[in-house]
Amino acid sequence: MIRVTVSQEGEYRTIVFTGDVGRWDRPILRDPSVFSEIDYVLTESTYGDRVHKNPPDISDR
């Protein structure tokens, strides 16, 4: 993720550019980063139109 803060005439805006946001609590991947006080987000959304089921726990395999 990339966070950019821009200023125009004394007003500040924060923009975050990101690819796949990711999922929490994955065994081999880091949890997604969390930013606060963001005005705009530009993101990849290949699977953004669906609800993902919880995958089976890796320890069950």
Folded structure, characterized:
With 61 residues, this protein is mainly beta. The protein has one domain. 0% of the residues lie in helices and 31% in strands. The chain is built from no helices and three strands. A three-stranded mixed β-sheet has the order 1-2-3, with no helix packed on it. A hairpin with a 2-residue loop joins strand 1 and strand 2. The radius of gyration is 16 Å and the shape is elongated. The two termini are 32 Å apart. The model has no long low-confidence stretch (mean pLDDT 83). InterPro entries: RibonucZ/Hydroxyglut_hydro (IPR036866).
Oligomer: single chain
Number of helices: 0
Order of helices and strands: EEE
Q: Which parts are unreliable, with pLDDT below 50 for 5 consecutive residues or more?
A: none
**Basic shape:** elongated
Q: Summarize the biggest pleated sheet.
A: 3 strands, mixed
Structural class: mainly beta
Radius of gyration: 16 Å
InterPro entries: RibonucZ/Hydroxyglut_hydro
Give descriptors for this structure.
0% helix, mainly beta, 61 residues, 31% strand
List the helices and strands and how they pair.
Layout: E1 2-8, E2 11-18, E3 40-43
Parallel strand pairs: 2-3
Antiparallel strand pairs: 1-2
How would you concisely characterize the structure shown here?
The chain has 61 residues and is mainly beta. It is built from no helices and 3 strands.
